[in-house]
Amino acid sequence: MAMHNPPHPGGIVRRQCLEPLALSVTDAAKHLGISRQSLSELVNERAGVSVDMAIRLSKAFGSTPDTWLGMQMAFDLWQARGRMDEIKVERFDAG
């Protein structure tokens, strides 16, 4: 069963990873080996978790890359389901 309105993983990074460790976006980005802008876009929910980012987050903060990607997928799917009526596709007829 899909989670009701799952949180954006960037918010989770901000609230559960950066804030408890009192890490600034700049310091965390350096540690993760990414630009400050990339991490800022993630934690401000303007970008999603890529495969590469999932590996970096896993190494730095724990959990698995699969967990980080699963959170992103759940968020994206929830958003897409809200637009399902706008997606006009007809089913293929196997006959």
Defining key terms:
single chain; 95 residues; mainly alpha; 57% helix
In short:
By secondary structure, this protein is mostly helical. The protein has five helices and no strands.
How does this model look, in words?
The protein is mainly alpha-helical and 95 residues long. The protein is built from five helices and no strands.
Q: Can you count the beta strands?
A: 0
| Main sheet overview | none
The fraction of residues in strands falls at under 5%
Q: In angstroms, what is the radius of gyration?
A: 16 Å
Uncertain ranges: none
Order of helices and strands: HHHHH
Mean pLDDT: 95
The number of helices is: 5
Distance between the termini: 32 Å
Structural class: mainly alpha
Sum up the overall morphology in one term.
Answer: elongated
- Percent of residues in helices comes to 55-70%
